[in-house]
């Protein structure tokens, strides 16, 4: 280091954060403690260091007192490191000469006593580290002007359309044969009761028609390499056995195919053929062949009805799985949710009694394109009384602690639809709390309340076919407490609709790993900040929108889709992205050529030169994890911004109060 | 009707803080416990209402209702509770309050205490001794049991002199120690 | 595998028929055990209502005694099992409780370490002996006999949690099917029988028993098979009272699980305590005999073909 | 020999990775969970950066215990840094026993960004465990040697 000891001038800034820090930590004591530390030129405290006057304070000191290191003791660096780095830059100080000391999230907020003592140790550590901080150079690279959207539900559709509207290339990848997601399965949407398909299909068609959107259905992302601005994504395209470029969507193949299977789209309530489009408005309107049920595939060449009847010759049994690589600057993950299988709660009788169904099954029964043509019937019988059980698997620590947010509202919608379709039907809502928090929701609740719906406040324990009275014979009996009266009740009905929890996709963990994201405790993917950064993630350039982040209704999902598009567009429109400055480099004089580092690097950023017998680090590829730094037996690799010197000084100072004063370490 | 002021919340009895699950504070009044309970129909306050009374500090009112005495400890409520409340243990706690604070119907109270007394004396249940203790103060009770008693006797299912534990003194000492540690509620 | 057997108070008294059948059947299956030396009452359903500490210390004494033997502690009574496992569980999760319980046990000169291995009779039969072995030993298949498998309450909740599903256990069904019986769908298989309320609060207890019997009749069961001595006692002893509560008359045979197993193994009814059942199991005998006759007739018929 | 006073509190150094454990600790803060103030955190980008000398330095400088906390195996922000940590920690434990430090004074934990409660629990448990063990005062040992 060129600076001599006297050249280092550190400014320490202790933030009160209102009473968030000052309420627990004695900020005056902390400031005078900081003032006494070596090389500290100035120590101050202020109500809100991140405010304009707070920032100005630091700027002024840098300029007037010639500070060349800044320590801000405030919130987590994850909150305001960018803010204070900018302050340094504005005052012509290299932003990497700043150290943040976390005395809020990891001190004042979590300790009732002993917070000031701990804060002193943390500040002393930060000062010691700051002493060794060095200016780093920020590098920029160009951003690939294309976006990958993963998941073709309403969130992904909305994001893809918006990015494409701005004139950028979008790759939209969907696992199923058609886009549309859960929303296309719904009948009506609350609280306005507009038809779900009617409002969604125009958007689906727009996706298909847009020249900048490359739609890849029946496909999955299998690998993601690279970093913000420059991702390289590998997509597996499963064989459809139908040539998309030749198929006209005439449907003759489906008509002629003799083999049937349960329709996934209709939740198994209806059937489809072995060659099928999941629903009439599918996008793309190109069928797929389900190899498990196709006799041509299973029995090597027997059948072939579709082959015979397709005039365009679009059927192609020679298709194989294909891997496609695309390059994008940003990724929007919109993989949605799964509906919980309520058979896990066996006492509610799902799968034991055919007339106990899930909410999604009811959506299909109610829908004019559904298996019953929109007639609410099971085995041809129309129910005269229906129980709707809320919170199945939600708000229950045995299953999911969270509230699924949409069930109260769609349960009200169901009651309305049943009332509309079945004359004189009795509907019972078994609820715990009615949560009607959105725009127009309470009004809808009011409307539904006037429509002869019976509200029973209580969580049912059981759906049974054991009749205790003649009225219960042949019925399903919902066993519950009417908690508002404080009396156990038995309600005999003809049909029970369960409102199962919206839960993380079964493969949420793999998705999180593939895109280098985290999951929150409930299993949904974790956003960067719950309030202020709701679609960004810890992995720069990857955004999460819709129910992959947590249960949401359609308006919220759409809003998030648009937010994800805005984030991706901001990145692409800027055209450049800053790379990690805290990379590693090899001190060639010390390198012994042992090659240990080469195999350790997860980014293959280290190469070994056989002629020089030295390792080299490609800093464009280095992410600064420091694995090689810790592993180098010669200590020849330096990890910028987290050097051995910096960390060891930090550790020693962190513990300065734990030893008797006489002990020199 | 007079509006009753709620009692200030007191420190709940120690044993309600159960190690297995959450205490009644966690209850959010969904009523799944009541719905799972086979005897709730006969209770003055359903299990859910008992949790609410405990939350509001009205444990005496909960105990006096006798609802706890109808709990069969089948554990359905505890196993199902979506908030992990150890409902069965809460019900047992008000059962104890009911018995020790003498809210209970004298016969039921005697049923519990006679049972425990025979166990204290012999280390095991002793039918004849229990029956003597239970029925003697109120022979009317016996009339209802004649049918069952007849069967039991004729089918050879009541032993007149069952075995007990070897060291009955040590058993009694255990009972005393428990009372010393716990105190009576 | 070595076992010590904890009979509990009911099995040595009011549920003597259960005990007799357990011993006969387990001997027949070749399971050897010794009785837990100097066992005491587990506190039944009563101790929790009198003393929290005793409700744990009483079963803990038995657990501590079994620890000395280093064998698996087996019990055939669901209430005993419940109390034992509850004590084990609570003490394991709370150091203060363990201290208090051991202070009580110290009065009897013993300590509970927490190493006891507790097993339910059904667990031993199904998982140690095995259903294949059980099926092999059947000499008198129960074909044609329609049985309602009544799991009982704490059975379903605590016991089955250890080796089967909590909410929807099936092991009992599988055991009875291995005997050749036809297990009918029994909607109240896990509904509580009312426990001691049959005695302490007859007006509440009797209708509960009535529902269990009505449900068995509704599904055309020839008998109810139980896995708990208290359920067996309640369902057998209070059919008159239950009948009055429900405005009907009941005569439903109720057999303890090992009683039915014994019949399928061809053991004499007397060794299974069947003569002590309050409701005589004669219809069950007749059904088994009819089933046997039918199947031998079938065998003859297929032989002549 | 350092004789602990009655109100002696242990000091523990936590090396937390930036992406999971450090965020988890932040979450404990935003959720206002309360835990023992004995753990002092050093942020590193990845637990793979942790050189065993950092841990020794901490003990030498007066720490009574050290926690290394990172992403769950398989969830590493840098793909596999934490696997390298696992390997390194095995050696480190041996080294610690050779140096006369009870290896239980060192812990490796996995804390995801969503596991604020887990972090608080670990901090409490570790503080209690180290408090029970008493002061390490390794510098004394070093002085004697």
Polypeptide structure, described:
The complex is a heterotetramer of chains A (about 675), B (about 180), C (about 300) and D (about 140). Chain B contains 9 helices and no strands. Chain B is mainly α. The radius of gyration of chain B is 19 Å and the shape is globular. Chain C is α/β, with parallel strands linked by helices and about 300 residues long. Chain C has 2 domains: about 120 residues, Glutathione S-transferase Yfyf (Class Pi), Chain A, domain 2; about 160 residues, Rossmann fold, CATH 3.40.50. In chain C, the strands form 2 sheets. Chain C has a 4-stranded parallel sheet. In chain C, helix 4 packs across helix 7. Chain D is of the alpha/beta class and about 140 residues long. In chain D, strand 3, helix 3 and strand 4 form a beta-alpha-beta unit. Chain D is globular, with a radius of gyration of 15 Å. Classes of the chains: A alpha/beta (about 675), B mainly alpha (about 180), C alpha/beta (about 300), D alpha/beta (about 140). Chains in contact: A-B, A-C, A-D, B-C. At the B-C interface, helix 4, helix 5, helix 6, helix 8 and helix 9 of B face helix 1, helix 3, helix 4, helix 5 and helix 7 of C.
Summarize the structure in short.
With 665 residues, chain A is α/β, with parallel strands linked by helices. In chain A, 27% of the residues lie in helices and 23% in strands.
Oligomer: heterotetramer
Query: Overall 3D geometry of chain D?
Result: globular
Q: Which CATH class of chain D applies here?
A: Alpha Beta
Q: What is the CATH-assigned architecture of the largest domain in chain B?
A: Orthogonal Bundle
The string of secondary-structure elements of chain D, in order, is EHEHEHEHH
Beta strand % of chain B: under 5%
What percent of residues of chain D are in strands?
15-25%
Uncertain segments of chain B:
none
CATH class category label of the largest domain in chain B: Mainly Alpha
Report mean pLDDT of chain B, rounded to a whole number: 84
Number of helices of chain B: 9
Element order of chain B: H for helix, E for strand: HHHHHHHHH
Q: Give the N-terminus to C-terminus distance of chain D in angstroms.
A: 13 Å
Largest interface: B-C, 61 and 72 residues
Radius of gyration of chain D: 15 Å
State the major sheet of chain B: none
Number of domains of chain D: 1
Q: In CATH, what is the homologous superfamily of the largest domain in chain B?
A: Alpha-helical ferredoxin
Number of helical segments of chain D? 5
